[in-house]
Write a structure and sequence with these properties.
Number of domains: 1
Strand content: 25-35%
Number of strands: 7
Helix content: under 10%
CATH architecture: Roll
Distance between the termini: 25 Å
Shape: globular
Structural class: mainly beta
Strand order of the largest sheet: 6-3-2-1-7
Radius of gyration: 17 Å
């Protein structure tokens, strides 16, 4: 079974109901592949593909934006495709292990 948690940190294709509403924040209509940063009850958080400071077009800013669920028509994930599917941040071995954890 596939869960939405599996796409966090991956690049997915998103088909919007109305993608023109993102033009104001610099996301053009021809961009449909996005890095998923997270999700909540309101929608899906995506990494902004190319956000520059207005004064200096050379400085790329790190930014995320929210797409509400009612504006998502389709999401397509590419499992095991190189460059699109990355290891889940939830599957990392971080922290201490006890002998009880190893069983």
């Amino acid at each position: 079974m596939f869960n939405i948690e599996d796409i966090i940190g991956d690049i997915v294709y998103i088909d919007f109901q109305d993608n023109s509403i993102y033009n104001e924040i610099g996301v053009s209509n021809d961009i449909n592949h996005f890095l998923v940063k997270g999700y909540d009850h309101i929608g899906i958080w995506l990494a902004h593909p190319k956000l520059y400071r207005k004064k200096d077009k050379k400085e790329l800013l790190d930014a995320n934006f929210l797409v509400s669920w009612n504006n998502v028509k389709n999401i397509m994930h590419y499992p095991n495709r190189e460059g699109y599917d990355f290891p889940s941040e939830f599957d990392k071995d971080i922290g201490f292990k006890t002998t009880k954890d190893k069983k």
